Amino acid sequence: MGLALFIRLLFWIDWNGADPYNLPVVDAATFDSEARGRLDGSWPGPTPFWQAPLYSYFLSGVYALFGERESMGRLVQAVLGSITCLFTWIIARRLFTTSWAPRAAFGLVAFSGPLLWLEGQLLRETLATCLLTVGVWTLLESRARGQRWWLAAGIFLGLTAAARENALLLIPLAAAWLAWSLRDRRAAATFVLGALLPLAPITWHNAVHGRALIPISTSGGINFFLANNAQADETLAIRPGRAWRELTARPWREERRLEPAAQAAFFQREAISWIVRHPLEFVSLSAKKCFQLVSAVERKRNLDLYEGASESWVLRPLLWRFERFGFPFGLFGPFALVGLALALAIGWKRLRTRAPDGTPDVSPDRDLIAMVAAGFLIALVLFFPSARHRAPALPMLALLAIFGAQQLWLRWRAGGSERGMAIASLSVAFLCTLVAPLPAEQPGEAPFLRATRLASVGREVEAEREYGLALGLDPHNAEAWSDLAVLRGRRGDLEGASFAAERAVTVDSTYARAWSDLASVAAARRETYRAHNAYDRALRLEPDLDDARVGLARLHLAQDRLDEAETVVHEGLELSPRSPQLWSLSAVCAQRRRDPVRAESALREALRWSPREADIWNDLGVLLVREGRNDEAVSAFISALTSDPKHPFALANLRRAQGR
What's the CA dihedral at 147, 148, 150, 152 to 10 degrees? Predict the structure, then answer.
């Protein structure tokens, strides 16, 4: 374990200096935000979990102990990675009699470039990998140690599923393995009980806030659809942004579905409908994903592992590719595939063999490793065949690679037809890792994601530089031009913002958000007529675009056109009834009408959908002061300051309400 930890500490030191490449983006940014929200009370909130929540809770615990520093999250993950290496070695000692096999399995995991890279990201795969490996060891030990270990094994597998939903498939498989290997149904029942313990609070939270049976998260529906439809290649490449917003708006636009469970069901029905209508295409797509899953090249999911490796002297020799060959999986992957196939074949043969007492004859330890690896990979074929999602299975695949190498060596030494079979099986396995087409290039995606993250944390100068890099690689990225316009407008560079917004609508005149951004810049430059036209164009393209409706309503209010503003807000709320911005504007319109009751109702509706919005709490407090309800106003101002201790007006308003 010391060697594994030493390598990881070197990478940790190196990666902490790789700014901005080490920034948490996309899912990592979400987990980081949820962890911080857990500490300030804004997460999980009154909605079902979108993703398996265990990692966000884990990261919030790290932040609570060591401060809200991303580097400490990576350091703790380095320790988790070392624990994974240790338990891989322990399991290998149990499986193999030769002295070199455990050391080889340890080395494959300890020096695994993909696992190291993931430990440098605030992503759940490192936690899931550690929990799965320890869970498998606990399962193996439970055969000899009894009931408490059955329960402990279940808890570890349940925790794995609470970190990565696809591990749910392993729970019934592991329960069946326990029942067969011990000939004791109590073992399986105790194991399942243990697995349910960490999942029960998650399911209960989802049931309370989602009014539906959602075992872990609501993202399964849309993720299943992304991976199983007629344009799966395109949908799997969708990242947060314009295409993602358009996709996630479909349940509301097409069926007026607002509840998370109903939206998940919408996408699940879409995918199942396509599978039923096109079974051959589904089989073909699944076969393609199988090859992608065992590809020697590490397939990215938003982030390119090889780009990250190029920024680290520790990772560079451990994670690289040459055309279709990728290191390290291209080296040990073929042996793992051979080992997996042989282990499953031998296990099935023994399972069918009857002992004298009529019970099946099984070889439990190796069968469990093969079953866990196969079950985990099968679950991935239904969803995302990417390197990041494959990572938790790598320790099991490393063990199977050692087994495959041993079996191939025995057949080679046997000579004759056995040697020929060894060569043929290894060649076929090697070809399987090379068959999948290379991932499509997406120029400018990485700097664009970094720019988005930098802008969100206030590092605007660096964000503009990254936007420039993204647009240099892909000048036709309308979303990047539009975001750059917003960034420049925020910095007060209205001329530069106008140029970027005009470029966005020139590149893609169908992009509604770009027209809305152009209108906002025009309004800031007091070009009222131009702003009206641009907002109208945006709303013709996307009637439920909140930003455009809010901007247009504010423009009407600035011109004392209250009727027009109310019409825009009313139409917007019919299309987007969960928009806190539109409800806040509805309150403004009501106050202009001298209708405090309607204004208060609108503000409270806004807080229903955005309970941590300091501006809305402050506005509610101001309204309550005017109504002479000072005690309630004080509570509203305190809520505003709880959400934003540096709010520019809430503190002064609180003092006035308290008579100080």
Answer: 170
Task: Tell me how far apart the alpha carbons of residues 394 and 329 are, in angstroms, rounded to a whole number.
Answer: 9
Query: CB-side exposure of 424: number of CA atoms within 13 Å?
Result: 6
Interatomic CA distance for residues 238 and 26, integer angstroms: 11
- Averages of pLDDT over each 10 residues, the chain, 660 residues: 88 90 89 90 84 94 92 94 95 89 93 94 95 94 83 94 92 88 83 94 90 86 89 81 81 79 88 93 92 90 85 92 90 92 78 52 74 91 88 94 91 83 89 85 84 88 91 90 91 90 91 91 89 91 88 89 89 86 90 89 87 86 84 84 80 75
Q: Residue 291 gets which letter from DSSP?
A: H
Q: Is there a contact between 287 and 320 (Cβ–Cβ < 8 Å)?
A: no
Cβ atoms of 133 and 109 within 8 Å: the answer is: no
Alpha carbons 202 and 92: distance in angstroms, whole number: 34
Count CB-CB contacts under 10 A for residue 573.
Answer: 19
Contact at 8 Å (CB) between 572 and 546?
yes
- Helices 364-381 and 329-352 cross at an angle (nearest 10°) of 120
92 touches 399 (CB < 8 A) = yes
d(CA 630, CA 624): 7
Distances (CA, A) of 286 to 219, 413, 558: 20, 37, 56
Preceding peptide of 392 cis, ω within 30°: no
CA angle 208, 213, 215 (to 5 degrees): 100
For residue 57, give the nearest of 31, 26, 80, 81 by alpha carbon: 31
Tokens of 165: 């939903």
State how far the alpha carbon of 576 is from the alpha carbons of 376, 541, 570, in Å. Answer: 39, 15, 10
What is the Cα–Cα distance from 258 to 47, expressed in whole angstroms? 12
Q: Are strands 320-322 and 325-327 parallel, antiparallel or unpaired?
A: antiparallel
- Predicted model pTM: 0.89
Site of tokens 């002295």: 99
DSSP code for 135: H
> In this structure, what token pair is assigned to residue 509?
């005149």
For the chain, helix (H) and strand (E) counts, in that order, are 35, 2
User: What is the residue type of 18?
Assistant: A
* Distance of alpha carbon 322 from alpha carbon 327, whole angstroms: 9
Cβ neighbours of residue 409 closer than 8 Å, sequence gap 6 or more: none
